[in-house]
């Protein structure tokens, strides 16, 4: 498969389901976004009123109003889905949006104080190119704040049937040394999954060690790492994600070269 073909596979579900995706987010129907990832990444970002922000992988622009409510200013939103960008422009007429691939983001040198990316970095197999571009785009002391799939949860064996969803990670070994293994953390690969019964998505799994090597190799200082857990509110999602983190968050700082 060529890179262009892979790009089409990555973005097709968002182009085809853009309005449904935006409606779901705006109606608060994505539990882990509303109750876990969004509060955690906004707390980590801790925006100030003087900061200019680029939103990388901005989707339909749901993050922009909460960011600007802090007093920070979003100067650019970047996404590969033209359908999601159209919705972002409608919702945020004062912000510039451009089409761009997170694997090679179209950024200018020293253009912003913060690059912010919510659940998009898992659409890049190799982080070295985007991290270098992001570091160049930041002003001295600038920050890259992002969330991505937690590599343990998202490398579990996933079975989705009409009866429900099962994720398993681990192994069994009998006294006769018969072994069964569920999940595959160590093999870095493109994964396919189905979300909300209709979105057939593709994303990249990489180990935690690979993530850290890429971050350090790009010259960033790690200011913070978080594996946030939700409160158990009595819901099925609360029961799961109060014990198993679905995402991992990073706050990286640009230091002197």
CATH topology: Rossmann fold
Structural Rg: 19 Å
Number of strands: 13
The tally of helices reads 8
**Could you state the order of secondary-structure elements as H and E?**
HHHEHEHEEHEEEEEEEHEHE
What's the structural blueprint in terms of helices and strands?
Layout: H1 3-16, H2 18-26, H3 31-45, E1 52-56, H4 64-68, E2 73-79, H5 82-91, E3 97-99, E4 112-118, H6 128-137, E5 138-149, E6 157-161, E7 164-168, E8 170-173, E9 179-182, E10 189-195, E11 199-205, H7 208-217, E12 220-226, H8 236-241, E13 247-254
Descriptive key words:
single chain, 257 residues, Rossmann fold, seven-stranded mixed β-sheet, 8 helices
Gist?
With 257 residues, this protein is α/β, with parallel strands linked by helices. The protein has eight helices and 13 strands. The protein has one domain: Vaccinia Virus protein VP39 (Rossmann fold), CATH 3.40.50.150.
